[in-house]
């Protein structure tokens, strides 16, 4: 049988502290060096020249550079060699030397003559994926991408089988569109046994979960004499202690008006490990989905995110509305639909221009997204007339008037 017809024998080389020689400082070296460095190899580059990226690795002390051409003896002490000069004769001589010293050697110019092939590799959460197809590197890369992507987003189910220590992931699910959860969030969701979910956030993702996953609506956890939040904290703790992989799926970001810290604190007090996965907050993404940037050069140099769930004249309010009224930038209000009339009047009373443009974006990033425009003077009445309902993000400021194709 032809040597090239038999499959390669896959192996993971443990190169830490071992000498690896790379001949040639061009594009091939540029692509191979980072993973050799990441593997802890003692990398020696032999080449008269190098690309700027390779030089940067040399400058950073990650690679030793001998600025000259290949010469006999370079591979004598190597464990592994990458031969990639632009001189075919030098490549042939180097691979002959590698053969003589029994050094595994990849060759950029002649895969048939090489004694080793570089697989298409990728990593996700401690898993290294390496794919060899023999003669079709594009196919190797495509298979690698599919596997890594599947591991990252959880569509390729590969649960951990080591004994679990109790833990909970507080996952920010983003504003509602299921595509706007993070890759890590989606993977943890795919690995969950129990998901405790809020009303807001990417609820469509819950339909995709396999039948064995217990999905609990946080709003429906019975709380008897305890507070609703306390009941949620207890449910997280109980399920984690029962050895389940628990995901607390929250709308937007867990730490933006999401009570995420209260849950993290309760878990810490119960001795349960907690991972916080940030999410895309509705405070920025919902305006963006409606075409409103919260900052714009020459228009707004700041944006302030404020909760409107407490009326401005309520003694328990922690918001300095008078100070906010003096700002010129963008105000983003969450949980403010009910009180927008009172908030607008307060801002005007403290000096914010009554003509300031305002947009209300309801159910942003979902199929039901709707935008209602007004000014600070009219927004209370407009919101009522238009029947605006939560969830909505209210944006106040000149950024609201910006339009595509109109640079002003
Ligand atoms: C309790 S807060 C949670 C915020 C969330 N942690 C975040 O970072 O987006 C709920 C408020 O977020 C806003 N909100 C969340 N998702 C929204 C969406 N898809 N469209 C409009 N507003 C949204 C509304 O103002 C809603 O009342």
TrEMBL record:
One of its GO terms (molecular function) is uroporphyrin-III C-methyltransferase activity. Residues 168-379 form the Tetrapyrrole methylase domain. Its EC number is 2.1.1.107. The keyword Nuclease does not apply. Pathway: Porphyrin-containing compound metabolism; siroheme biosynthesis; sirohydrochlorin from precorrin-2: step 1/1. The keyword Ligase does not apply. CDD domains: SUMT (cd11642). PROSITE patterns: SUMT_2. Keywords: Cobalamin biosynthesis, Lyase, Methyltransferase, Multifunctional enzyme, NAD, Oxidoreductase, Porphyrin biosynthesis, S-adenosyl-L-methionine, Transferase. GO terms for biological process: methylation. It is an enzyme of class 2 (transferase). It catalyses: precorrin-2 + NAD(+) = sirohydrochlorin + NADH + 2 H(+). It comes from the Bacteria. InterPro entries: 4pyrrol_Mease, 4pyrrol_Methylase_sf, 4pyrrole_Mease_sub1, 4pyrrole_Mease_sub2, CobA/CysG_C, NAD(P)-bd_dom_sf, Siro_Cobalamin_biosynth, Sirohaem_synth. PANTHER family: S-ADENOSYL-L-METHIONINE-DEPENDENT UROPORPHYRINOGEN III METHYLTRANSFERASE, CHLOROPLASTIC, SIROHEME SYNTHASE-RELATED. Belongs to the precorrin methyltransferase family. This is Uroporphyrinogen-III C-methyltransferase. The gene is cobA.
